[in-house]
Each structure stands twice: as C-alpha cells, then as structure tokens.
Amino acid sequence: MYTIAYGHIGTGAIAASQITQTVCDMLFVLSFGVSGAALVIIGNLIGAGDEEKARDYARRITVTSLMLGLVTGAIIAFGAKGVVGFFNITPATAETAVTLLRIAGGFTAISTTGTMLIVGVFRGAGDASYALKAEMFAMWCVAIPLAFLGSFVWGLSAVGVGLLAQSENVVKFLIGMTHLKDGKWIHHIVKEETHESI
C-alpha cells in the first residue's frame, strides 16, 4: 500500500522507497531472529509456569532489541550513501534514497523493539490476538492513511511520506511498551484449553 502512495509522487520515489526497503530487510534479519528466539523462550517459560521469569526475560529481550536497533540504525544511517552508490539511479533518486535510509535508520531502534514485542513476546505468551490487533491498527488505522494523505492530499515529497510511514513503527512501539508494562500479556493457553475440554 505504501508503494501506491510513493507511486503518486513519481517513479523516482518508488525506486528510492524500494531501495530503502531492500536494504532494511537485509539488515533486519538479526532482529527477526531475536523475535523468533523471544517467542520460543517466553512460550517455554510460561508453559513451565514461571511467569516472573518470563516477565524478567521479556524486559531483558526488550533492552537487547533496543541496543541491537541502535547499532543497526547507525549502520543504515552512516552507510546509506555508500550503499545507494551501488544502484544505477539518477542523482535525484539517489539523494531521496539516502535520506529515506537515514530516516529508517533513525527509527530502527523503536522499529525492531516494537516488532520484537509484538511478534516475539506477546505471541510467545499466547497473546496473539492483541499482537494482530496492534499490527493492524498501527498500519491500517494510522500509517497508511497518513501516507495517503501526505501523498494525495498534502502533496508531500517522498521524504515527507517516508516520515509519515514511520508512524507505524512509533505506534507499534508505544502500544508494545504499554502492554509490556501492564503485564496483561501472559496467557496460559494449554491450561485454558484443558479446562475448557473438561
């Protein structure tokens, strides 16, 4: 859907956004690995009935994700110009791509942490419904409408739309941290299913 918003601006905007997405996806592999590990660890701890340890590990994983995001973001931001140089694009598109990459780098810490909480901790804790609602709300109720408004109504550049699109990561991060602190994300799925069957 973001591609449609960028497409309204022009082909250069699409190319710049696709370069940004490709580079970020390559560097986010480690973050996705942390999310997968978090899902397994939290799920095993809750399954074993050790809620306090699960909460402790969730906090530790959150800090780890933040630190990982800061490092990854710095790599993206400082390496943006060099990476874009490998692509055969116009100078204007290259400049836009560099700026979009630096914006993405600046939001990487909250992006990786929000994803880790929603995909890793909450789903691992059996709170998949909340995780799905959080992702849907952040994307379809906030980020995509803002991106379309920026492109079709406000006439913003690709950089402006890119900033608005980052609202998805901001919202997921805020929702994730709030839900982590309220402690209502732990669900004993096995016990609940066993009780219902009895």
From TrEMBL:
GO cellular component assignments: plasma membrane
Transmembrane segments: 27-49, 61-80, 100-125, 137-165
GO molecular function terms noted in the UniProt entry: antiporter activity; xenobiotic transmembrane transporter activity
Alphabetically ordered keywords of this record: Membrane, Transmembrane, Transmembrane helix, Transport
The protein's name: FMN/FAD exporter YeeO
Organism, scientific name: bioreactor metagenome
